Each structure stands twice: as structure tokens, then as C-alpha cells.
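Below is how a single chain appears once it has passed through the pipeline. First comes the sequence as given, then the structure the pipeline wrote out for it. We keep one example in the README because the format questions we get most often are answered faster by looking than by reading.
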Amino acid sequence: MFKEFKDFITGGNVIEFAVAVIMASAIGAVVKGFVSNIVMPVVGIFTGGVSLADKKYVLTEAIVNAAGKVTAPENAITYGAWIDTIINLIIVGLVMFIIIKAYNKTKKKEVEAAPAAPAGPSQEDLLAEIRDLLAKK
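Resulting structure:
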């Protein structure tokens, strides 16, 4: 059983999958940085200079004691962060689409040639057959 597991782990598919997961997390971090640091400030310009990442709907305010220490944290729906995540998803989808499209262009087309249709009789064969049939009459 240990040998089977070792063969499975050292097999090409598992290693390729591990590399793909690591690359995906790296691409995700790059895209998240791109969205948070480049796209969202541009979106903020169109929303009147307001950062969408800070937008939230407060359900209950934070409770602060006399010393200024928070005794109960704020409960809020952070819809701005959710919009940021949606933009991340769209950009990651676009990047993956471009990568797959480029990969498919570079991949050799392994289309097998369809077997040639059986060659029918040539025109000369047909004329010879007609001649022979007429000669028999």
C-alpha cells in the first residue's frame, strides 16, 4: 500500500496539480493586488472619491467602555469588500481565459485525418462497364 501511495504521489499528475495550485495562488495574489491598488482607486473616482473597500452597512455599533476599549465589536455587512471580491473574480476569469486561449493556440492540433472515403470507380471504369453491358446486348 505504501508503494502504491508513493507511486501516486510521485506521479506526474499530482506534481502538475501541485504546481498549478501554487501558480493559481500566486496569480490570485497578483490579481488581488491589482484590483485593490489599481482598479478600485479608479472606481473610487467614479463614485466621488469614496473607497468601495470601506463601504459597509452597520447592523450594530461597537460598544466602547469609558476607558475607550471596545467591549463588543461592530457588526457590519462589508459590501464594499464583496464588490472588490467580485471584481477580483472577473479579472481572474479573464486572465485564465487569456491563458487557456494562448495555450490552445500553441498546442499542436492532434486532429486525426478522417479515413478517406472508399474511392468509387473512376470515370473510365464506369465507361468501360457501360461499354461491356452494351456489348452483351
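The two ends are 81 Å apart (CA to CA).

See the next section for the split statistics.
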